[in-house]
Write a structure and sequence with these properties.
about 140 residues; four-stranded mixed sheet; flat
Length: about 140
């Protein structure tokens, strides 16, 4: 049984989606990040940087934090979505999402949706970066 510690965020969703796709039984333990649950000592024991998501694989007695590491672990355990011959390409796209696409789109949302009008520089910068990301992804997918 996998226990997923998560919140209602894109990083949390990607793990639930993976668990559904590989057909694993799991339970969700909600972490109330709006009230600071991620900074409590018990949570910091399993997530050193106080971030969600985290999984505990109770069957294998493993705890894994960071969404990319969790996705790789689940793919390896299930034998799905991580073909040996395609791992270099998969890893490139996974790292691009984690280090570029996700953080930059997250900043765009911070400035445009959650805190609009606070920083014209931030709004313009991350809007332009987001436009470029979507254009680059569209070009690649075409």
């Amino acid at each position: 049984m996998i226990e997923l510690f998560s919140a209602n965020t894109p990083n949390g969703w990607k793990i639930s989606i993976m668990l559904e796709e590989i057909g694993y039984d799991y339970k969700v333990t909600k972490v109330d990040i709006n009230n600071g649950d991620q900074f409590k000592d018990n949570f910091k024991k399993i997530s050193p940087f106080s971030k969600i998501p985290v999984i505990i694989d109770h069957k294998n007695n493993k705890t894994i934090f960071e969404s990319g590491a969790i996705l790789i672990y689940l793919a390896e355990q299930s034998g799905k979505f991580y073909d040996e011959r395609s791992r270099i390409e998969i890893n490139q796209w996974l790292m691009a999402q984690m280090g570029y696409v996700g953080p930059m789109l997250g900043q765009h949302h911070q400035f445009h949706y959650y805190n609009p009008g606070k920083s014209a520089f931030g709004e313009n910068r991350y809007f332009k970066i987001s436009e470029r990301i979507y254009r680059e992804l569209d070009e690649r997918l075409a």
